[in-house]
Design a protein that fits this description.
The chain is mostly helical. It has a single domain, classed as Growth Hormone, Chain: A. The chain contains 18 helices and no strands.
Length: 414
């Protein structure tokens, strides 16, 4: 019999795949969208940033809702909401309507990972937390790879507008299935075995029932500020891969859409591997009794790899070498995700949704900056190298920030 928590991981993994397919498909549809709507590259950058802004601003509220009402109801709602606006993207008629729809799409997607974090807190034992978090984020990277390979084919077969409509239906199916199967508390699940329930309750992290989350509690926590700052740096690098990598490779190396998609997809596979490796390393170090090091070491190594990868990748004259080094950068950047989200669950406990959402809000302000920084820096400096050097500097700074984190110190303590 498959353990219920394994089914939970499978469901959230598939959701992460869908989340990134829905997010990245607009980049692969860039040519058709800009031609049909008459958009410039800078306007398209603002379309991408509208998503990032909506995604950032609604992170903490979505996480708070998951803590307050449970990930069963809240995750069902946010998946249905972002799927609706995925479909509405296929009906936009101009620049302004595209900005509005993508902002609201981002607001809907904002609840995805904070709700997953809250579900993991209730269902997953501490010693499995790193691996589960890594598996979930690897799903996002696999979703990105699938999008870069499959979406160009879907666009050729049915047009970019109908592609968005099909993805809307897929999201609706997932939302219905999640609500039917999941329960916020494993003790309430009708199909969980007594042995598994006892194992979960014995080994999961328990919160403080009397603790209430406040803005003051978030703002006075040094752990919270460190988590936010390093995640801003991480997303500055990764969101380039999410938003501009496909058009960058296509234009810089004169590639056709399908070839550009395959090259871009390889960086996402590297990211998936980085997530799985980091998750495994986290749990191995944690089981040796070194809680703090289990979060710090994978993150510091990851940021170092990301800094090296973006600097060398920017110098390459051939697409193969450029993609290899950018894949190293993505592998490294994604090594930082599992420790980041495990860290938020460590310090947030029953407030894991709001805490992880707050970190992700700061991270996606980095995404917002990235979507605009790449085209504007290219215009101002006439070279893409400037952007990559800034990304490398932020990665180095983030590695240093990780030296100060204290996962054993809950949010209630400064």
């Amino acid at each position: 019999m498959i353990p219920s928590r394994a089914l939970l991981v499978g469901a959230t993994f598939l959701l992460a795949v869908l989340l990134y397919v829905d997010r990245i498909c607009i980049s692969t549809a860039k040519d058709g969208i800009t031609v049909d709507l008459g958009l410039t590259d800078k306007q398209f950058g603002w379309v991408l940033s509208a998503f990032a802004l909506g995604y950032a601003l609604f992170q903490t509220p979505s996480g708070w809702l998951a803590d307050r009402f449970g990930p069963r109801r809240v995750l069902t709602f946010v998946v249905a909401l972002w799927s609706l606006f995925t479909g509405l993207t296929g009906w936009v008629i101009g620049y302004v309507s595209m900005l509005v729809v993508r902002f609201l799409f981002g607001a809907g997607e904002a609840g995805g990972f904070p709700c997953m974090a809250r579900a993991i807190y209730s269902w997953v034992p501490m010693k499995e937390r790193g691996q589960v978090t890594g598996i979930n984020f690897s799903g996002g990277r696999i979703g990105g790879a699938l999008a870069l390979v499959l979406i160009p084919w879907m666009i050729q077969a049915m047009g970019w507008r109908n592609m968005f409509h099909v993805l809307m239906l897929v999201g609706g199916v997932w939302a219905v299935a999640w609500y039917a199967w999941f329960r916020d508390d494993p003790a309430s699940h009708p199909r969980i075995s007594p042995d598994e329930l006892n194992y979960i309750l014995t080994h999961r992290q328990e919160g403080r029932p009397e603790s209430r989350l406040s803005a003051r509690m978030l703002l006075r926590s040094s752990n919270m500020w460190l988590a936010m700052a390093q995640y801003f740096c991480s997303n500055f690098t990764f969101f380039f891969m999410l938003s501009w990598l496909f058009p960058y490779l296509k234009k810089t190396y004169n590639l056709d859409p399908v070839t550009a998609g395959w090259y871009s997809a390889s960086t996402f596979i590297a990211g998936a591997c980085g997530n799985v490796v980091a998750g495994r390393v986290i749990d191995l170090i944690y089981r040796s009794g070194k809680w703090r090091l289990s979060r710090q070491l994978p993150a510091i190594i990851g940021f170092a790899l990301a800094a090296v990868g973006v600097v060398i990748g920017a110098q390459m004259d051939t697409v193969g070498l450029a993609v290899f080094w950018l894949s190293v950068a993505v592998f490294g950047a994604d090594m930082t995700l599992a420790p980041s989200w495990a860290f938020c669950t460590d310090i947030g406990r029953q407030h894991s949704g709001a805490v992880s959402g707050t970190m992700n809000m700061a991270g996606n302000l980095g995404s917002f900056v990235t979507t605009l920084a790449f085209p504007y820096l290219l215009d101002w400096t006439r070279t893409h190298v400037t952007f990559f050097y800034i990304a490398a500097g932020l990665n180095v700074m983030a590695a240093v920030l990780w030296l100060g984190v204290k996962p054993e110190q809950p949010l209630e303590e400064k």
